[in-house]
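Hi support team,

I've been running sequence recovery on a batch of backbones for a student project. Most finish fine, but this one hangs at about 90% for roughly twenty minutes before it completes. I'm not sure whether the input is malformed or the queue is just slow. I've pasted the structure tokens below so you can try to reproduce it. Let me know if you need the job ID as well.

Thanks,
M.K.
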């Protein structure tokens, strides 16, 4: 397994204006990553999204840093589903320009109270199937990630995978995000490992919801506990066990490191990639 990094790991530096989605390619290479994932593109200097994607691809090629994957938002739960589907297909075209072989799209962005899962599953599965059929013609696999509270725990993700039932469709297994649904990552990864087309390596600190609110940078899980991003190896996610499960399942794709913590970004990424290597090799 090779270790890549998500552009989201640099988001604080991008938001501050210190870096942008183009300049982080050099940083990722210097930090020793073997690939980079992009979330929804943020063109600057008047670039169109397509031209910006080409610029990123050329820069990544210069540093011999494959663009492993592309992650975009989508919401197939509302009345604008046709518009959402067409937008998702346009993002597949952007993934082609980037040279990414895997695209992750969201499926639902809803807040409590949640709708009935069995009632919305067929509609969501049909939408995912339509997108993956389009992407298959472009040579790009599509995935859904376990995040967003509603499609987050492993049983629901497995049910979605089975309902879509398409060879080009799989899951992006984020080993940390299961904690957002108060689920044991070891149990969850062992359930979904064989369906993974991509993996996010992430760590999180977790505190009981029975304790006082720990304050800034923590947010609540679906069950009311508190979590925040962590340097890999510093938090509560059993990263090594999850890596062992993935290897045992035969997964040999990229591990995309995603850092969401409050520490200095570059220092956190240096420590995280070193700690993740000890879990993999």
């Amino acid at each position: 397994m090779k270790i890549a990094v998500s552009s989201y790991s640099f988001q604080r530096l991008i938001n501050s204006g210190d870096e942008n989605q183009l300049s982080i390619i050099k940083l990722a290479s210097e930090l020793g990553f073997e690939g980079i994932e992009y979330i929804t593109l943020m063109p600057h200097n008047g670039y169109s999204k397509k031209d910006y994607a080409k610029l990123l691809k050329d820069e990544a090629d210069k540093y011999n840093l494959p663009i492993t994957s592309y992650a975009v938002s989508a919401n197939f739960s509302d009345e604008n589903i046709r518009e959402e589907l067409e937008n998702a297909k346009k993002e597949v075209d952007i993934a082609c320009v980037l040279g990414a072989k895997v695209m992750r799209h969201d499926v639902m962005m809803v807040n409590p109270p949640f709708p009935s899962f069995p009632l919305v599953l067929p509609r969501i599965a049909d939408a995912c199937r339509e997108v993956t059929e389009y992407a298959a013609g472009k040579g790009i696999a599509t995935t859904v990630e376990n995040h967003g509270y509603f499609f987050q725990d492993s049983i629901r993700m497995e049910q979605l995978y089975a309902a879509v039932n398409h060879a080009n469709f799989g899951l992006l297994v984020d080993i940390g995000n299961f904690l957002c649904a108060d689920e044991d990552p070891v149990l969850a990864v062992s359930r979904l490992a064989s369906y993974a087309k991509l993996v996010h390596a992430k760590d999180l600190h977790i505190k009981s919801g029975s304790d006082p609110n720990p304050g800034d940078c923590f947010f609540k899980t679906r069950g009311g506990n508190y979590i925040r991003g962590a340097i890999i190896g510093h938090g509560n996610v059993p990263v090594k066990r999850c890596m062992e499960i993935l290897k045992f399942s035969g997964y040999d794709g990229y591990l995309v490191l995603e850092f969401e913590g409050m520490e200095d970004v570059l220092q956190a990424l240096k420590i995280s990639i070193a700690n993740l290597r000890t879990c993999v090799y």
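--
Follow-up from support: It reproduced on our side and the slowdown came from queue contention, not your input. The longest strand covers residues 67-72. No action needed from you.
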